[in-house]
Amino acid sequence: MPADHSYAPDFLTPVPRQGESMGEVAARIAATPGEEVDYQLDIAIRGRRMWPDVLALHPSEAAYERWRRPMPPVLETLVREGGAAVAAVAATAMAALFESVLAPDWPRVRAIANADISNRADRMAAHGAAAVLDDLGERMEWTGTELVLERTYSGIIDWADEGVVFVPATTHVGPVLFAAERPHPPMLIYRARGMGVLGERPAGAAESALAGLVGVTRAALLTTLDVPASTVELSRRTGWSNATVSYHLGILLRAGLVDRSRRGRVVRYARTALGAALTTSSVQEHASRAAQSPPAICTDGPTALDVNRRSGLPSRG
């Protein structure tokens, strides 16, 4: 695959809808018109039809053909049945991927995405659009009037009457990706803040009872507060954004599990006697269980995948 090829057929990841379940997303994938799937496969796969509007974006026919990827062996037979068949199989595969890989981490994925959105919305309200757009990721520039993404091909998207949808992703670490397929609004996909926390091992039994009472995120913060720390320090330790840490610390503060003190401009949080008692009790419970159980072999599971990871070329419109 060419190093500069970040294209993935857009039908695999429809434009996100608020509150939509994975089953509903899979249904939308399966319902993609066959000709739309065929067109997107033509864009991506070497040797298939070259559409003039897509070819015109590249320096030459040879450059475009080098940019395309070889036909994946798993698709060789399926594509003969047409785009509708590809969409149906893809929908089943996406649903299975979600259940087997992403579902256990989905609450944390959503928490990271929501915290990222909140953080950027606050920054935009306080400092303007440039404060948000200038640091979304690599190979993108905000000129003040245009969003410019560095690519080996060239094109202009000027039909974004309804604006641009910004999608935080929890596994993408490279350049900002985009999707532009009429009649949907264009989308920009970028690395979410605080996504490193997904690479951590799940909370152990030492935190399970506490997590069941106050939630996994707040339990982790209480456990981390073995010494007083500021929001910024906790953000660095956990990998969560400042906004996420502040939100959960506020809940712990109102519940009487942490207290705060100010020295100059720095506010530090510490466990109260109640918070310390809950944390200590949970650790003691874990120690008691561990003494009665044989040791277990633990391995790190795969990092959760984000179903909103997508990129694309301007469509036929």
- State the share of residues found in helices, binned by percent: 40-55%
What coarse outline follows from CA principal-axis ratios? Answer: elongated
Described by strand count, sense and barrel closure, the largest sheet is:
3 strands, mixed
Query: How many angstroms separate the termini?
Result: 27 Å
> How many strand units?
8
Mean pLDDT rating: 77
Strand content: 5-15%
What structural category do the secondary elements indicate?
mainly alpha
Enumerate how many helices there are, as a single number.
12
Q: Stretches where pLDDT falls below 50 for ≥5 residues?
A: 201-207, 286-317
What is the N-to-C order of secondary-structure elements (H for helix, E for strand)?
A: HHHHHHHEEEEEHHEHHEEH
Rg over alpha carbons: 23 Å
Instruction: List the strand order in the largest sheet.
Output: 3-5-4
Description:
By secondary structure, this protein is mainly alpha-helical. It has helices at residues 22-30, 34-44, 52-55, 61-67, 83-102, 106-127, 129-133, 205-214, 216-224, 231-238, 242-254, 273-292; strands at 140-142, 147-149, 165-169, 177-179, 187-191, 229-230, 258-263, 266-271. The strands form three sheets. The protein has a three-stranded mixed β-sheet. The chain has a three-stranded antiparallel β-sheet with strand order 6-8-7. A two-stranded antiparallel sheet has the order 1-2. Strand 1 (140-142) and strand 2 form a beta hairpin. Helix 1 runs antiparallel to helix 5 (83-102). It is elongated and about 70 Å long. The two termini are 27 Å apart.
